[in-house]
Design brief:
Helix 1 crosses helix 2 and helix 7 packs across helix 8. The protein starts with 16 loop residues before the first helix and ends in a 12-residue tail after the last helix. It is of the alpha/beta class. The chain has a five-stranded parallel β-sheet with strand order 2-5-6-1-7, with helices on both faces. Strands 3-4 form a two-stranded antiparallel sheet. The protein is built from nine helices and seven strands. 41% of the residues lie in helices and 13% in strands. Bound molecules: adenosine-5'-diphosphate (ADP) and magnesium ion (MG).
Length: 256
């Protein structure tokens, strides 16, 4: 529970059952979704688990792309292609202009343009497919063309669904509330805002996590009071307390 990587399995995801169900329901219904919320609240974890569940239980295919540092459409294309290849997405490239098909999947032709390639790639997806773009605000500099591509996919290929996470700035704000000139105007995505855990959920989370690693902990009240239920911060603050009290036998091996 206290592992610091984003969670990937449903059974590691604590206290987010209803959010996960809602997210899956929306994606299965064909809607696009923006998962919002402050840093460390669990957006990446929720999204990764959702993609896994769609693949394993709902016969949906999907890809997860972390956009940190991805500022241009070229960079987007470069990060998207390997993920699409490893998901073995079914593509109908009968009118292909921008891609070369190889044994390991597709590759962009050297002189291909990013906008045209992205449009072609997304429109050629030939099965139900969810593309998770994590930290979509990173693409804010490229937002005009990016939104044009999204608008185009939205109207021409209903098998592709986008799942975004992002903070409420730049392109994320436009996605949530598209101005009348935007290609996504009139079709805003569903918003799922992740909230901090309430006090009781935080308490149970801490107790369960501490028990998992064999630490006898009773500082929950202190941590809960100071932390407002932001899941990513709860373990660290609990550790600070553990370290300030007499040494527990198995704790020292785990703190890094
Ligand atoms: N539902 C959850 N249960 C347990 N740990 C979680 C949960 N959600 C997030 N975490 C943990 O909190 C930290 C931040 O999660 P992450 O998904 O990266 O948040 P965000 O993407 O919002 O910044 C990570 O250490 C992750 O393992
Ligand atoms: Mg994240």
């Amino acid at each position: 529970l206290f592992d610091l990587h984003p969670k990937e399995h449903r059974n590691e995801l604590f206290g987010r059952d209803s959010e996960l169900e809602y997210l899956l329901e929306q994606l299965l219904a064909g809607n696009w979704v923006v998962v919002g919320g402050q840093r460390e609240i669990g957006k990446t974890s929720l999204v990764k688990v959702a993609i896994r569940e769609l693949k394993e239980k709902h016969g949906f295919n999907g890809a997860y792309v972390n956009l940190r540092g991805v500022r241009s459409l070229n960079a987007l294309l470069t990060s998207l292609i390997p993920e699409m290849n490893s998901s073995r997405v079914k593509l109908d490239l009968s009118f292909n202009v921008n891609f070369i098909m190889g044994s390991a999947g597709i590759q962009v032709k050297r002189d291909a343009k990013a906008v045209s390639s992205l449009n072609e790639l997304l429109n050629s997806v030939h099965e139900d497919f969810v593309i998770a773009l994590d930290e979509v605000q990173e693409l804010s500099q490229a937002s005009k063309q990016f939104l044009d591509i999204l608008g185009n996919v939205f109207s021409s290929n209903s098998r592709v669904r986008f799942l975004f996470t992002g903070s409420y700035i730049g392109v994320t704000r436009i996605l949530i509330d598209p101005p009348s000139a935007s290609p996504l105007h009139g079709r805003p995505p569903v918003i799922l805002n992740l909230r901090p855990f309430n006090d009781n959920t935080s308490r149970v989370f801490l107790r369960k996590g501490m028990r998992e690693i064999g630490v006898d902990f009773n500082g929950e009240e202190e941590v809960v009071k100071r932390l407002d239920g932001v899941v990513g911060w709860l373990p660290n603050h609990a550790w600070c307390l553990v370290e300030s009290v007499p040494v527990y036998p198995r704790a020292s091996r785990i703190v890094h």
